UniProtKB/TrEMBL annotation, chain B:
GO terms for molecular function: acyl binding; acyl carrier activity. The gene is acpP. GO terms for biological process: lipid A biosynthetic process. Belongs to the acyl carrier protein (ACP) family. The modification O-(pantetheine 4'-phosphoryl)serine is found at residue 41. Its main location: cytoplasm. Carrier of the growing fatty acid chain in fatty acid biosynthesis. Acyl carrier protein involved in meromycolate extension. Gene3D superfamilies: ACP-like (1.10.1200.10). This is Acyl carrier protein. It comes from the Bacteria. Keywords: Cytoplasm, Fatty acid biosynthesis, Fatty acid metabolism, Lipid biosynthesis, Lipid metabolism, Phosphopantetheine, Phosphoprotein.
Length: 343, 82
């Protein structure tokens, strides 16, 4: 048997910079009320959402990613050529082949960085961060660009009153690079495929080419509806408040961090009521800053955690060096939680 | 040890107090969770999860919507507790 040489990377990894892009169009609840029977009061009290951003034609998945990445690269103080890998988490890039990551890597001016997309729904940021950490530590890349990006407005059925108000668009990016000290804790992650029906696409893409559209959902005008994300809201809510608080606690324990040591809590921005419930269950002390970016951003799936992170740092509510618990959870069902030092 | 009706109401009162901040004495058999106790559909999920833990019962999502009053929930728990 021949001996295979290996590479050695950095002793540890850390997040070195963060950037975000929010589409220019701000959509208030009033616009949502044009297509569903609801009220501003109901939407605010059940979800916390006041406004969200929806992308225009120019604000593509690639364009938003490039904007967010440019800021993350500048924030990290590196050059694009130093990036060895680009990992994009998205469920709303509609040209499945090739991966959007390759276009992003090229347009940013990386030096043929490895580039690929992953699909892990609202847990995508944590999944991609975990991959990035591994790449930095095993020497596959010195710097990894992690992007969470969604145009969920394209996958929203505006006539569905249980989801029309929830989703938003945007991109968040971080640079993960070498560190002498540990600044990203162990990831607690997993999947519960037995609950795959609780959040899903209404109709798989291939149903559209089978000719018989009579079985497909129609809109008010009799046209076939584009696929949208549908969910069993109560079941997802129950799972999130009950099971995800446990996962968040496990991530704290795995990192050896107590709620008292924690500065910031950045859960996936799915619903302010889920966030409030988790804060209660985890018994987070008053001094912990809690991200509630959902109010003005909606649920942006894989983009929500880096977007919320960027906003907390930009407003000064959180600062570089703070210890933050991040947890993502969603369609799959999948989840990923870890403790990080903020860039 | 199965809980008595009285113990269940007292337990639900604690839970509703914790989740919605309603005084425990207001939580009575004839009270509607949504109309009288300020427990909306999402708080109700939290109440149910807490009750499941406290009384060792399983209350599936489909049954939750039938639990309109404290009395409904108490009867359900009495019947299904482990
Ligand atoms: C979507 C969500 C806010 C809906 O809330 P809910 O309480 O479960 O809503 P329900 O469908 O059970 O409806 C409860 C009541 O509100 C009404 N309702 C539903 N949607 C409404 C709307 N948009 N406006 C006004 N009323 C509405 C229903 O008719 C029902 O009324 P009734 O009790 O008089 O019959 C909530 O389930 C949720 O956020 N779940 C988690 C979803 C999530 O985070 N998904 C993403 C994870 S990545």
């Amino acid at each position: 048997m021949s001996k295979i040489k290996t590479r050695k990377g950095a002793p540890y990894a850390r997040i070195l910079g963060v950037g975000g892009y929010r589409p220019t169009r701000v959509v208030p609840n009033e616009v949502i009320l044009e297509t569903i029977d609801s009220s501003d009061e109901w939407i605010r009290s059940r979800s916390g959402i006041e406004t969200r951003h929806w992308a225009n034609d120019e604000e593509t998945v690639a364009a938003m990613s490039i904007e967010a990445s440019g800021k993350a690269i500048a924030d990290a103080g590196i050059r694009a050529e130093q990036i060895g890998a680009v990992v994009v988490s998205t469920v709303s890039h509609f040209s499945q082949t090739p991966a959007v990551a390759t276009e992003i890597a090229d347009k940013l001016g990386t030096n043929q960085a490895a580039a690929f997309d992953i699909s892990a729904g609202c847990a995508g940021f944590g999944y991609a961060l975990t991959l990035a950490k591994g790449m930095v530590v095993d020497g596959s890349a010195e710097y990894v660009l992690v992007i969470g990006v969604e145009r969920l407005s394209d996958l929203t059925d505006l006539e569905d009153r249980t989801t029309a108000f929830l989703f938003g668009d945007g991109a968040g990016a971080v640079i993960v690079g070498p560190s002498e000290e540990p600044h990203i804790g162990p990831t607690v992650w997993g999947s519960e495929g037995d609950k795959s029906d609780t959040i899903k696409q209404t109709v798989p893409w291939n149903e559209f080419r089978l000719g018989d559209v009579s079985q497909l959902p129609l809109d008010g005008k009799g046209n076939v509806k584009f696929p949208a994300i549908t969910q069993e809201g109560q079941a997802v809510f129950r799972w999130a408040v009950f099971e995800m608080a446990k996962v968040a606690q496990q991530a704290l324990d795995a990192a050896g961090i107590t709620p008292d040591d924690l500065d910031v809590f950045i859960p996936h921005q799915a619903n302010v009521r889920i966030i409030d419930s988790m804060v209660k269950t985890l018994k987070l002390p008053e001094h912990v800053t809690v991200a509630r970016d959902i109010r003005t951003t909606g649920n942006t799936s894989a983009a929500s955690i880096p977007l919320a992170m960027e906003r907390l740092l930009a407003t000064g509510e959180a600062k570089s060096g703070d210890t933050a618990l991040v947890i993502g959870f969603g369609a799959g069902l999948v989840y990923a939680a870890t403790v990080v030092t903020l860039p | 040890m199965a809980a008595t009706q009285e113990e269940i109401v007292a337990g639900l009162a604690d839970i509703v107090n914790e989740i919605a901040g309603i005084p425990v004495e207001d939580v009575q058999l004839d009270k509607s969770f949504t109309d009288d106790l300020d427990v909306d559909s999402l708080s109700m999920v939290e109440v149910v999860v807490a009750a499941e833990e406290r009384f060792d019962v399983k209350i599936p999502d489909d049954d939750v919507k039938n639990l309109k009053t404290v009395g409904d929930a108490t009867d359900y728990i009495l019947k299904h507790q482990g």
